[in-house]
Amino acid sequence: MLRSALQKLSKVVDGSHIESEFPFFLLYLRSIATSPISRIEMLRLASEKDIFKHIAKYLRSIVVLVSTWRYSQANACEQVANKVPNKRLKTFLIRLSQSISAGEQTSDFISREYTNYMIEYVDSSERRLEQLKRLSDAYAAVLSSTTFLCVTTLLSSLMLSFEMLLPMMILMVMVISSILFMVAWGIFKSARPDGILAQTKLKPRKRTIVELLGVISIITSPLFFLLTFHELNDLSYSIAILGLPLLFSGIVGCKYVNQVKKCERYYPTFLRQVSSICSAGIPLTVGFKDILLVNYGPLNKPIKRLFAKLNLRIEPKIAWSSFEAEVSSELIRRINEIFVDTLHSGGDIEEVADLLESFYSQYIAIRRRRYQIVSYLKGLVVPLHITMSAVLGVVSAFLKLLTQYMSLISTIVQFLFIPPISFVDFYFLLMIVVISLNNTLAIYASEGDSRFTLLFYMGLFLFSSCLCYRIICDLVSRFLYSLTFM
Predict the structure, then answer these.
(1) What's the angle, vertex CA 19, arms to CA 196 and CA 9, rounded to 5?
(2) 430: which residues sit within 8 A by CB, 6+ positions away?
(3) How far apart, in whole angstroms, are the C-alpha atoms of residue 262 and residue 329?
(4) How many domains does the chain have?
(5) Do residue 156 and residue 9 come from a single domain?
(6) Potential cystine with 30: which of 114, 118, 168, 330 (Cβ 3.0-4.6 Å)?
(7) Cβ(421)–Cβ(399) under 8 Å?
């Protein structure tokens, strides 16, 4: 039973990866189709690509069935289509099988499929972004009600025993967290965020250092927590200090990601200039001298190193791969690999360059539209989270003062239960930590740039909310005591 559940989960995850890779897969086929190569050779080239590795494994199965087991191309596509967990890729392979059986030209079929898909892709993206906006509002509405539910549950349980109070509090935390998680999952399905950083084994030194800093912050955070708790014996300050290493590494990581995004802004200009040189029949080593005269911002150094490698007659594919790894952008890596493969297979560079530039601009436009909604979500979540912590701090201060009088009242009113103030603190801080995790996941689900987003917002929420809770609680307590004993 567990095995079948894991297999189903694996298929769902695999299908999700295929869905995100499918636009680049079709773009690759559309670009390579301009080359004078056979259909099976085109599929073989695509099966070797790491930029859509979850699709490539099914293409390898088609190539093996045709070349080793002597299946017809139409039959091989149909057989593999039955094993694909993603509906979009499955129907594409079935249509490809029908096209092969009908004797249609591969380039005509691919061109029609790409045109139809891009129209649908833009429309469906707009619909998903509208849904993302509605889900962001729903998440903010649920989040704003958590403080009320948390405080109401605590106050209504004053007439219960401690044995009944504890399960009730834990249940409330689990219910609120589950609701927020389900809305966050809906946000993720609507946003379908793309990772910014390239998923390659070869990484630039700067990125390696930044990622190592992230790992160190995760390891050292518990140590900071234990040391602070041992010295101060205060849970709220300890949790706030726990968030500091995460916040610091998150800031450094997000700055690196923003640097990669700047490279993405300059890349279309570089691609346009390289394609114009190649389409004019000028050797790259000669044409690159003119390219180096243009300012490409953060791309200047990687381009100079690329020129140096090509000038030293290093294998072009290795030189371009090194350029992609140094830039460290997943989008640039995918587009650049498509361009380089088209260049080496003898495709129509001028047509493909226009195709890549058009796709690039549409992809970036959809991402920017999503970022606008993400900013809207952040503008709701961050202030609500800080406000929730401040309100819980005020309530905790009132309860501290109330406990001094409740001991007298409880001698008269026997059914009234006095919760320990340490338990109230623990319950409120547990709620803050859980909601911090939920809010971090919600923002990451909509933005999804890199895992540094997780570190940054988890550190920010833990540090700011726990610090705000403790400061507000102490200030209100002093104010109330001053009023009481005047």
Answers:
(1) 100
(2) 173
(3) 10
(4) 2
(5) no
(6) 114
(7) yes
